[in-house]
Structures are given as C-alpha cells and as structure tokens.
Amino acid sequence: MIVIGSYVSPYARKAIVALAIKGIAHEVDPITPFYGNDEFTRLSPLRRIPVLIDGDLVLNDSTVICEYLDEIRPDPPLMPQSPADRARARWLEEYADSRLGDLMIWRLFYPRSVAPRVFGRQPDEAAIARVIESDLPEALDWIEAHAPAQQFLFGLLCTADIAYGAFFRNALLAGWTTDPQRWPRTAAWIQRIWAVPEFARTIAFEQAIVTTPFAERRAVLEALGANLSVRSWAQAEPRASIMLKGIAETGRSDR
Ligand SMILES: N[C@@H](CCC(=O)N[C@@H](CS)C(=O)NCC(=O)O)C(=O)O
Question: Is 239 in the pocket of ligand 1 (CB under 6 A)?
C-alpha cells in the first residue's frame, strides 16, 4: 500500500500509524498537499492528504482509511468492541478531526508553520493569541473531561487516541504546549500516545523534516530509513488550497 501524505500532517499520521500498528507493509510519499501535482488532484479531488492506494483502490479521508484498515486487518483492533464504545470512539475522533483541525491546524499550525514557508505569508499573531487565550482552553476543558486516567480512551489504543496524539504534535510544533497543571489527564494521556513505538517513529521523521525545505525532505527521510514510494505525486511549485478558498469566502471553518 502507499500513503500519500507528510508525516507532519495529523490526518496522514493517523493512517501511517494505523498501518504500522497493524503490521501492513506500506510506502509513503511524504508530500505537503499544496505541492500535489495534477495526478494528485485526480486521486484527491479536495487536494487533501492522506490518500491510501491499495492496488486499484484509492481512498481519501483518514477516518475512511483507518476503518478500511481495521476491516481488512482486524488484529490488533483499532476500534473498541461494543457498538456503544465504537460510536463514542467515532465521535471523539470526529471532535479531534473537526475542532482540533480548525484550532490546532488552520488557526495555529498553518499560519505559523505552513503559510510562511510555503506561501511567504506572515501570521496574524493577534488572531493566534485569541485562539490560545480562549478557543483552545475551552476545547481542552472538554477534552480533559474525556481523557482517560490511565492507558487509552477505551483501554487499548484506538484510532481516536492516535488522532489526539497527532493534533497535539502540530500544536507543539506551532509553539503551544498542554499545561499539565491545568489539564493533567490530557497532558499525561498525550505523552502515553506519543510513546507508543509506532507513533514515536513518526515523531522522529516529523522532527527531521518540519523545518526542512520541501524539495529536500525525501533525502532526509530516506537517510533515516523511512520507506518511501518510488513514485511521487509532488510538483515543484505550491498551489493554493481548494478548501481554504471556500473557508475564506464563506467565513466558516472546516476540517
Ligand atoms: N477529513 C480529512 C481532512 C484531511 C486534511 O484536511 N488534510 C490536510 C493536511 S493536514 C490537507 O490536506 N489540507 C490541505 C487543504 O485542505 O487544502 C481527513 O480526515 O483525511
């Protein structure tokens, strides 16, 4: 299988960690979506990562991908057992994908770490300060009430745990850390997720490339032993996001 998507993307990371936990052999094309070529647009009509290629099958959306992986390789499971817990897990994952996607990616990581490097646009620090002072703490209070006191959300690690671990990496990369005095359960839970070996491996890759220019990332990852696809769906020049255009024009947030 091939995953198109950078180790820095929380959504791509979800798919990559799930593949690793399930022991499914895979290669990664570690692209940032803005550098996708025309063939990438054909595979990913929203020009988003991750994309999973499994032979003739092309899947979009990290949640769809992880559920597919769980169905074709049920062991070890990445969803809890009972229907009620499975429904709870889906909602917790959805909260991360949409609310943390909005706050930690679009309003924190994107303006601070992506837009300056890819599009030469400087962040609006006043807008970021508002997110840090009020929106993020509100979300964290909700998360703290759901964070497990030990182990993971439903005992064994599930896709929803991976999603939270992934978004909190991007928040950290953008300079925001979880205050362990204010949100002790969340802070400890996120550390446990980061310590899972399959997750920790992606942290090593993420750290190596996050400040590396896009064109040099493959070489850096290869030197670290990442299993990269021979083929890449990247081009040299970045293109504006399709979805961000919609967000800017309507004023709504989206994931
Ligand atoms: N719902 C999608 C969201 C994927 C997503 O937004 N990925 C980001 C990368 S972190 C992306 O490709 N953004 C580019 C864009 O929206 O233009 C999923 O779960 O895979």
Answer: no
